[in-house]
Amino acid sequence: REENRMEPIKLFDAEYKFVSLIWEHEPINSTELVKLSRTKLGWKKSTTYTVLRKLCERGVLRNEEAIVTAIVKKADVQKYESRTIVEKAFDGSLPQFLTAFLGGKKLSREEAEELQRIIDEATRS
User: Fold this and answer.
1) Residues 101 and 115: beta-carbon distance below 8 Å
2) Does the pLDDT at position 3 exceed 60?
3) Nearest one of 79, 47, 49 to 61, comparing CA atoms
4) Does pLDDT of 4 surpass 60?
5) Cα(16)–Cα(36) distance, rounded to whole angstroms?
6) Closest Cα to residue 71, out of 82, 55, 50?
7) CB 3.0–4.6 Å: which of 90, 94, 101, 111 could bond 107 by disulfide?
8) 3-class DSSP assignment, residue 10
9) Residues 6 or more apart from 6 whose CB is under 8 A from it?
10) Does the pLDDT at position 111 exceed 80?
């Protein structure tokens, strides 16, 4: 299975916010990224370049000729993070997670249909 080939990517909160800016604006010039990081995250230029360098070293981002792009897809990070939460906080039980997440909230017909479609796809052989 392809999902097992890739090392899981753990991003800390600040890193996730930074990478989210890149996912939203890529490809982005590093000078523009510095401006965006200052505006959206309140970061200094040195902080932006330090985090950028570290995430490039970890294989999360690429910075070639001052153009920054993401190597890691947002969906892959979300998959890892969501599985980690379910494993850690709910002993791996998706029903327990959903019960806690919904917390008495009523689903719209559209949300219920979408969840049913996802469950149906996941249970097909």
Assistant:
1) no
2) no
3) 49
4) no
5) 15
6) 55
7) 111
8) coil
9) 76
10) yes
CB 44 within 8 A of CB 38: yes
Stronger pLDDT, 110 or 10, i.e. the higher one = 110
For 87, left (φ over 0), alpha (ψ -120 to 50), or beta?
alpha
Q: What is the pLDDT of residues 38-56, one digit of tens each?
A: 999 999 999 999 999 999 9
Given a contact cutoff of 8 angstroms between Cβ atoms, the answer to whether 70 and 61 are in contact is yes
pTM of the model: 0.74
CB-CB contact of 87 with 94 (8 Å): no
Side chain identity, residue 102: L
66 Rama sector, left if φ>0, alpha if ψ -120 to 50, beta otherwise:
left
- Count of all residues that appear for the chain in the document: 125
pLDDT at 28: 98
